[in-house]
Design goal:
This protein has 57 residues and is mostly helical. It has helices spanning 3-26, 29-56.
């Protein structure tokens, strides 16, 4: 997996975390849920990349 994709997946997880925090502070449940979803998606992509790299070597 390329370094750029790894950073993109990590960035997606961080973006989701930030969205979740903003939603929590503002009391916006929709934004909070959207952030959790983005964070989860980024974390899953990171885990998939780690598994792929483990079997690659």
């Amino acid at each position: 997996m390329s370094i750029a994709k790894k950073f993109a997946h990590q960035g997606e997880a961080v973006k989701g975390s930030a969205k979740k925090a903003v939603g929590r502070v503002t009391g916006n449940r929709r934004l909070q849920a959207e952030g959790r979803g983005d964070q989860l998606k980024g974390n899953i992509k990171q885990a998939g990349a780690k598994i792929k790299d483990a079997f690659k070597h």
